[in-house]
Amino acid sequence: MGVSSFYRNGSRDDSNNVQASERTPLLNASSNGSPDVTFRIPGKSGSGSDPNQEPKKDDLPASLFKVLVKTYGFELLQAHFCKLIYDLLQYVNPVLLGVLINYTKDRQKMEDQGQEWKGFVYASAFFVVSELGSIMFNQNFHIGLSLGMRIKAALIAAVYKKSLTVSNESKKETTVGEIVNLMSVDCQRMQDVTGYLWMLWSAPLQISLALYLLWGTLGPSTLAGLAVMLLLMPLNGLIAAKQRKYQIQQMKFKDQRIKLMTEVLNGMKVLKLYAWEPSFQEKVEEIRQEELKVLRNTAYLNACSTFFWTCAPFFVTLATFATYVLVSESHYLDADKAFVALSLFNLLRFPISLLPMLVSFVVQASVSVKRIGKFLRQDDLDTSSVQYNPDSEDAIRISRGTFTWDKTNPKPTLSDIKVSIPEGKLVAVVGQVGAGKSSLISAMLGEMEKLQGTVTVKSSIAYVPQQAWIQNATVRDNILFGSEHNPRVYDKVIESCALTSDLEILAGGDLTEIGEKGINLSGGQKQRVSLARAVYSDADIYLLDDPLSAVDSHVGKHIFDKVISHKGMLKRKTRILVTHGVHWLPQVDHILVVTDGRISESGSYEELLSHDGVFAQFLKTYLTQDQDEEEDDEDPEIAAIKARILERVDSVTSDTGATSGDEVMASRRRASRSLSRQFSKSGEKLAEKKKEKPKAVDRLTEEEKAEVGKVALSVFLDYFQAIVAAIKARILERVDSVTSDTGATSGDEVMASRRRASRSLSRQFSKSGEKLAEKKKEKPKAVDRLTEEEKAEVGKVALSVFLDYFQAIGILATLAFFFFFACYQGVNVYSSIWLSQWTADSVLQNRSLSNTSEYSDRNEMYLGVYGGLGAVQAILILFYAIIAAIRMVKAAGALHHNMLSNIMRSPMVFFDTTPSGRILNRFSRDVETIDNLIPQQLRSWMSTFFGTVSTIVVISYSTPIFMVVILPLGILYYLIQSYERSKVQYMAIRNLWTWWLSVRLEFLGNLLVLAAAMFAVVSKDVNQSLVGLSVSYALQITGGLNWLVRMTTDLETNIVSVERVKEYTETPTEAAWVNPFRRPSSNWPTEGSVSFIDYKMRYRDGQDPILKGISCTIQGGEKIGIVGRTGAGKSSMTVSLFRLIEALSGSIIIDGTSINDIGLHDLRSRLTILPQDPVLFSGTLRMNLDPFDTYDDATIWRALEHAHLKSFVEGTPNMLQYQCGEGGQNLSVGQRQLVCLARSLLRKTRILVLDEATAAVDMETDDLIQATIRSQFTDCTILTIAHRLNTIMDYDRIMVLASGEIKELDTPSALLENKNSMFYAMAKDANLV
């Protein structure tokens, strides 16, 4: 469930003022303008009904189709009514044609009777009927396509909302890839089919009307044509059944492919660091090949369907005419009957040719409706599992609660939970890793399956997850999250969450754009932004899932004091804090101790320490381990608190005999030494500050001019006075607490002294704060953009895009199927001309010869040639259909392969500046368009285009004077179309443009019909056969132009997918993965020495260099700690070592080999990195450790043992074949990082890089990782970007970076001896000296 969901009640109500965009998709997500579709399931949890009530039998299953019909059915009926009027008007024209032919036959008689006006009336009637039909047809399409867009938007909204509320059981059945496909592919199919649903009833109606009128014209001979159609119906049913089967298979493979691509894009940095791109590219290609196999079978079916239904109209015509000639008494097919019948057959051609499209659309839509409906019918999280009661006495209350993540698991995750949290209290949740602390938070949120009990929440909730959720937006947008910007509150939140110094470093301040998943922020910064978002939301209840684990101890203390504690911003709020920091526990109101899914103890800190219980044992275990580690990077106050806690715990546990007297004394001495050590350090620091106050000011002025150069000396003096006052206050408070324990001071005196200290401290800091606030009045910074805007072409689609697609098909293949289709259309036109010659034959017009052999031979000759022309058409269309089917599937496969290969080889800067959703859309929607829509629409366009051209040719042949009209109207047609298309800039208005363009262009087409009819009336030397031929083809002009405009628009709309895919096949790529001429030896590097020689690097063109001429040499086996402020260039050094970013100048030498000379995979596969973010992929645990199957099981088990995961893996059902789930969701954050450690242990190269590897994990996992690194990588060169300075104090050398330069590089002792060194200042800030 999205983190955004938990801010709905806590956020301010003016979120609609914020504009949503591609980078801020969740802002304004619930505005009034968005579709509001609720799909409820009777009787299901979360549906709003009583869960205990038995659902009615006829209510199940819920039908998405019925919901759509009830919601949009009336509007669709309006569109279909217009189509009904159009269909009826279409069959008026053949009747008018018969009347017009009779008029030309009796022209002389009409003129003698003075009734020549009737001819003009008949001709005008053609125009009126055609124009009215055009208006109705276009209105039908306009309503249908607009409605389709609304249905698509509503379904996307429904799927999105459902994805936020789907239950945990249902999440197992639905992958991210499937949800992406539902929104991008299935919802689009619903839009596509909505505009053509009229085909379901219109095609049978048109066929029925045509057959009825044919019966009136040709009599029982019509039954022969009907028989041909009936023979094709079972074939059509078989094709539909097969297509449905293939569609289901294709969508299944598409879901798998998109799921894998989602994970590949999310973990691309890890793939590149480990050189795993070929393995995952192969996995994607394997799924794609299965998908193409199904697509190929579908294409063969479509080829068969195209063959039969393209030939069907002619075969129906041939069968009907042949039967009429053979069985009629006169054996003569006159022009009246032939061309009235031909016009009816031409009308019949349209619905018959639409049948393949109808079958395809209906099959695709039925599959999509089923898939979307199945997803929407899945169980929701039970909304009744958490009851919201504003009158509740407690902020949160859980009574006898039992919860689980998996109903199939017999053991619940949480059992017998009883919690009552009063308003305004600070409650800590503690316990070992895996005890169920985060699950308890999830139970309060309603995210778990509640098996029994009640959960009552009083008011709004804000949630800070263990892994920070960051939007691809600016820092400010991430914090505001749609709320109104209140500068006073905002600045206070920034300061309290320790973000002020970070924003000063960022180029755009809080307007700096954060990349996807916070790629340009450290783990601690992401966590602080996530916390700031929650604090700014101003909720009543705060659920904080260990937000302090990713920050340094002194930063954590700042946040605890300024935000969480009773003195912080949330002091009047209810706070539930999951924490591993036991030193915070004395300051909380209540503590919940979670053990094995149960609350083993609860109470205040004093109550829990009053006896030797689970809590006391937990504290002793943790603090003893912590003392043994001797981590000295803590704040002295924190260390003092820990020492006192340990002494108190020892005294409690010793009372029960659990600890011997010697052990008690030892632990007390240990605590005393720690406390003395910390106090002595504080005293030294205080003395140094007093002695070196002027020198300190000089140092800051010289080394940090950009940050403090404008600050007056008096501000610093006030600042140091505030620090002195703070230390005094701390000492006074400690003395008070110590003396109060011995009874020397009463409770009132203690409180009074604390208040005095607090007032003194507040006065000092407020003075400094006022002066610093004056200094901060600066001009607002411009937004620092990271993500590039998506390219969008406007106007007419370039011809080069079509050429790209034809090139993917193959130029020869393209020419071949265009040639075969043009020949087919030419033969089709000639068959109509042959028919006109047949009806105009003077021998056949002489009825007196009807019983002679010459007459019958002449009829058989015409009929035989007519049938032969039909056979030639069948052969040509078969060749066309087969070539098109095979080559279009090949083109789809080639375009996808080229895009995938290029994406896998793209540099990291491409992924940093391009949202993964944009890339994923290319692989889902655009590939789907190339697979299915473009081939179908290209066939329809070719049929319509050649049909329209052939119509104009026939009319010009039969009525040459028609050329006088067709040429100027054709030029006008082209100019209008080109002008209107050039104005179209956005896809959203393309349907409106199509509607207006169709109305205007069809008006020109109707003028052509009028011209053809008028020329037939006024031309006295034209026989009735040519009149019938000319007007019957002219009647196709309007429909042809109508469909041509629509098909051209649809084809241009969808051919853009080829352009978008092609764009991502041409983006810049990395260097070659393998350089065959400069491959290193198999055991390289043997020593692990690394040299940077005047190395410069920048992330993007136009930016200043991040690393500015770095030069240093690291000996093999040396341990180097890399430190520096945020933005100093620490991570840039590691990405440079792996060549994720190429050098601007200079070089890096590893064991005498320049890394620029060898292939990227030869380099990256010989280095090992333990990254900050633990990234896992869906699949087995073994695949995540060894995707190339390089190592045997024994080696993998050893790596798991050293990574402290062996017992966990042995406890899973399938052990190494254990499925990790998407993104490793089945594992905790700590376990994921340990899996990454096991990867590093498997590779174990001579060079190991640790990039803040423990910044986002709890302290227990941190201890395990540090211990393993010290024991297993003793002979390796280690480069560590330090998260905590104490972890590198025993390293050989320390490298201090600032502004992209190496400021210091020496042993820790040497740097600490120099009190002017930057490292000494950093160690002092971290309380290490």
Automatic annotation (TrEMBL):
GO MF annotations in UniProt: ABC-type transporter activity; ATP binding; ATP hydrolysis activity
Q: Does the keyword Repeat apply?
A: yes
Cross-referenced CDD domains: ABC_6TM_MRP1_2_3_6_D1_like, ABC_6TM_MRP1_2_3_6_D2_like, ABCC_MRP_domain1, ABCC_MRP_domain2
Write out the biased-composition intervals (Basic and acidic residues): 682-698, 768-784
Q: Where in the cell is it found?
A: Vacuole membrane
Which residues does UniProt call coiled coil? Answer: none
Q: Where is the composition biased (Polar residues)?
A: 16-35
Query: Mind listing the UniProt keywords for this protein, alphabetically?
Result: ATP-binding, Membrane, Nucleotide-binding, Repeat, Transmembrane, Transmembrane helix, Transport, Vacuole
Q: Which domain of life, per UniProt?
A: Eukaryota
Gene Ontology cellular-component terms for this entry are:
lytic vacuole; vacuolar membrane
* Bilayer disposition of the protein: Multi-pass membrane protein
Q: Which SUPFAM superfamilies match?
A: ABC transporter transmembrane region, P-loop containing nucleoside triphosphate hydrolases
| Pfam families hit by this protein | ABC_membrane (PF00664), ABC_tran (PF00005)
What segment(s) does the record annotate as region Disordered? 1-58, 652-698, 740-784
**Bilayer-spanning residue ranges:** 196-215, 221-241, 306-327, 347-367, 805-827, 863-886, 945-975, 995-1018, 1025-1045
Sequence ranges assigned to domain ABC transmembrane type-1 in this UniProt record: 81-364, 815-985
Main subcellular location of this protein, as a coarse class: membrane
Entry-linked PANTHER family = ATP-BINDING CASSETTE SUB-FAMILY C, MULTIDRUG-RESISTANCE LIKE PROTEIN 1, ISOFORM I
Instruction: Give the record's family classification.
Output: Belongs to the ABC transporter superfamily. ABCC family. Conjugate transporter (TC 3.A.1.208) subfamily.
Q: What protein is this chain from?
A: Multidrug resistance-associated protein 1
Species per Swiss-Prot/TrEMBL record: Elysia marginata
Print the organism lineage.
Answer: Eukaryota, Metazoa, Spiralia, Lophotrochozoa, Mollusca
